[in-house]
Write a structure and sequence with these properties.
- The protein is mainly β.
- It is about 5% helix and about 55% strand.
- The strands form seven sheets. Strands 21, 22, 23, 24, 25, 26, 27 and 28 form an eight-stranded antiparallel beta sheet that branches. It has a five-stranded antiparallel beta sheet with strand order 10-11-12-13-14, with no helix packed on it.
- The protein is elongated, with a radius of gyration of 27 Å.
- The N and C termini lie far apart (about 85 Å).
Length: about 325
């Protein structure tokens, strides 16, 4: 029985090479698909050399990763390597970062030489790794996942959205992550992806600085090609407000759209300097290890009611936050 070896050409088409026909390679038209378990499947449009009993699709299992030039790569399981080699690299371009998936545009060529385009969608969630790099975790079922690590340094735009750019032979490509910021403690800054998703970037940072008018965090992004982490300073400019039923709110001033509100609980006390001292808490009502002192003059509406309550309690601290009445 003749032995046939398969690989994929630069146009993402299956190519068959037979031992019986040395130097002869046959292109097998088809398209890649992603199945419900994030396996790679090649759907055949023309028959395999094995004959009419050959399968109409080939399923390839393995470990997903991202190459240095941002191509999708699948390192194949051992039982497929004798026929297909060690790995399959899909030529194309990352099209969009969605809330629960990654969309990849694949280019191919038809029999008559015309180029065509189709998309692949891997399901999973977005997270940050231990070096603050953006990572897409491909869901393999249960607690199993493959990590696609984006080796470049991300940044934020004027509206405080996370932006990732990379360069390919076709130019510069930009991925925008829509979401909102949250502060869980003084040394961790979180960015939750917008929508019905568990995707959230938890970044490790230096101790945050909380002042009247701004919140400031500093972090490093550890890249494989750089000896030192790439430094990022994230400064949120805005206004502090007290809102009944919510707590202490910092409204971030965005260039476009409505301001984003970062909500805190807080244990508050009057000082002898015409100000209020706040010991900040997160959404779980746990202290985050950060203090803030604000002038009494900035409080209006609900804030005035809170100040009157503080004065009536004298030296006793009052907690402002969701679920606490004042």
């Amino acid at each position: 029985m003749q032995k046939i070896k398969y690989d994929f050409d630069p146009h993402n088409r299956l190519v068959a090479a037979s031992d019986a026909l040395l130097g002869v390679r046959k292109v097998i038209d088809g398209q890649f698909k992603i199945d419900a378990k994030n396996n790679l499947v090649y759907h055949l449009k023309s028959p395999l050399p094995e004959g009419p009993k050959a399968p109409h699709q080939i399923k390839l299992k393995g470990e997903w990763s991202l190459t240095k030039d941002h191509q999708l790569c699948l390192a194949l399981d051992k039982w497929r390597r004798q026929t297909f080699g060690d790995q399959v690299t899909i030529q194309g371009q990352i099209l969009e970062a969605r809330e629960n998936s990654l969309l990849f545009a694949v280019t191919t060529r038809t029999k008559d030489g015309k180029s065509s385009l189709y998309t692949l969608e891997l399901a999973g969630s977005w997270q940050a790794d231990e070096r603050n790099r953006l990572t897409f975790k491909v869901d393999k079922g249960g607690d199993d996942f493959d990590a696609l690590t984006f080796e470049g340094a991300w940044q934020i735009d004027k509206n405080y959205q996370i932006i990732y750019e990379y360069r390919s032979k076709k130019g510069i490509h930009t991925l925008a992550f829509k979401g909102f910021w949250d502060i869980k403690d003084r040394t961790r800054l979180s960015y939750a992806i917008e929508g019905d998703t568990d995707s959230i970037f938890d970044f490790k940072t230096s101790a945050g600085i909380f002042r009247d008018g701004y919140i400031k965090y500093e972090l490093g992004i550890g890249l494989a090609r750089k000896k030192r982490p790439v430094r990022r300073v994230i400064t949120f400019f805005g206004k502090w407000k007290l809102k009944k039923g919510a707590g202490l709110v910092f409204e971030v001033e965005q260039e476009e759209g409505r301001p984003q509100a970062i909500v805190f609980g807080a244990e508050a006390k009057l000082t002898g300097k015409g100000s209020v001292s706040f010991n900040l808490r997160n959404s779980l009502n746990k202290k985050i290890g950060a203090e803030l002192e604000l002038s009494r003059d900035i409080f209006k509406e609900d804030g005035q009611a809170f100040l009157r309550l503080l004065k009536s309690e004298q030296e006793r601290a009052i907690v402002a936050g969701a679920g606490w009445r004042w």
